[in-house]
Design goal:
With 371 residues, this protein is an alpha/beta fold. The chain is globular.
Length: 371
């Protein structure tokens, strides 16, 4: 009996202590929050080759990161291959990947799907293009890709194409007549027009031509670092004034020497909020959440990739064989929590941080795609 009584007392004491212990445990700052990476992806940078990118590690780290949804680049971006065929195959391939992981992934068609992903503990995958070359000369191809689930259409990559000028296009050309037709078709179909990578004239032309708000999903602020991949205050202000969205990336272009850090991300977010207002700024990291295990090995692969980009003419000033395409101290599964903490340390309120992490894009997506 004495033994039973002592056991009962021990259990009661443990139960009484449990709430106190729970209070000591740090609360997850992202619990219940919507976190949207408006340009990124999910994959393991430690693994070479093609195939299903959604390995157990990738999925586990994506869930652990607090990520709700991510805009993943599909289709033709640059290099050889027919842009239209490449893009159709890419979308079909990704559909197969998502079908293989129904408990973890959800294809996003509307803003409501982002909320549904959060409620169901899944990761929303937003299909996006980063080059309008697959349009050929036929704007009705937008209908096809829209029916396939593509929701974000970036008009140009760094070089020029038939829609307009990219950030590296000689002479800073504007939106072409066909580009205006494409923008009008995207507006009609309630699909997102993205001006990341565009030249200044093409960006301003598209923002003025579009009857719906547009986005610049991954960029930095040229007022802070004068590189072509960053956007001028004029571009940022115009996009925001028309109800649009601007995502700040975690890329080398945030630093004039190409070695960006978390403080640079915060600095560019602060400037973008000053120019655009707190309702129009978010994040488009241009990266994944899976940690790189061997940076030395990765650096060798990066040098090779940079050489290929230079050979095909798509590399931009500010990127090189020794510049990581991420911020060295803001990567891995804790990147969003760390960013939230850094923003809080700079005086951003919890509500403002929630907007930057995902609510601003959710509002914008609701305007374009519907709830």
């Amino acid at each position: 009996m004495m033994h039973d009584r002592r056991s009962f007392i021990a259990m009661a004491a443990a139960a009484a202590a449990a709430p106190a212990l729970a209070e000591l445990a740090p609360a997850d700052p992202l619990a219940g929050k919507i976190v949207v990476n408006v340009l990124g992806g999910l994959g393991d940078p430690n693994i070479e080759g093609d195939g299903d990118p959604f390995t157990p590690r990738v999925l586990a780290e994506a869930h652990a990161s607090g990520l709700t949804a991510v805009n993943t680049t599909l289709g033709y971006v640059a290099g050889p291959g027919d842009p239209f065929e490449t893009s159709v195959r890419s979308v079909a391939e990704y559909d197969a990947f998502l079908r293989a992981h129904p408990k973890d992934l959800l294809k996003v068609f509307t803003a409501g799907d982002i909320r549904r992903a959060k409620d169901q503990g899944r990761i929303g995958i937003i299909y996006g293009f980063q080059n309008g070359a697959m349009m050929g000369s036929d704007a009705t191809r937008i209908d096809l890709f829209g029916d396939m689930g593509v929701r974000i259409f970036q008009l140009t990559y760094n070089p020029p194409n038939q829609l307009g000028g990219g950030a590296m296009a000689p002479g800073n050309p504007g939106l072409t007549p066909f580009g205006r037709e494409v923008v009008a078709r995207l507006n009609e179909k309630r699909l997102m027009v993205d001006l990341s990578h565009s030249g200044t004239r093409t960006c301003l032309d598209a923002a003025r031509t579009s009857t719906a708000p547009i986005s610049i999903n991954h960029t930095g602020c040229r007022a802070l670092v004068d590189l072509p991949r960053n956007k001028t205050d004029e571009e940022l202000r115009l996009v925001a004034s028309r109800g649009g969205f601007v995502g700040i990336y975690f890329m080398p272009f945030l630093d004039p020497h190409g070695h960006a850090h978390a403080a640079d991300v915060v600095r560019h977010i602060e400037h973008a909020v000053k120019v655009c207002g707190e309702d129009h700024v978010g994040i488009g990291t241009d990266g994944s959440v899976t940690q790189i295990d061997d940076l030395q090995k990765y650096a060798a692969a990066l040098a090779k990739e940079n050489a290929e980009r230079r050979a095909t003419g798509v590399a931009a000033p500010g990127e090189g064989p020794d510049t990581y395409p991420f911020t060295i101290d803001l990567r891995g599964p804790d990147q969003f929590r760390k960013l939230a903490g850094l923003l809080g340390g700079r005086g951003f309120t919890p509500r403002q941080i929630d907007k930057i992490l995902g609510l601003n894009f959710l509002r914008f997506a609701t305007d374009i795609w519907g709830a």
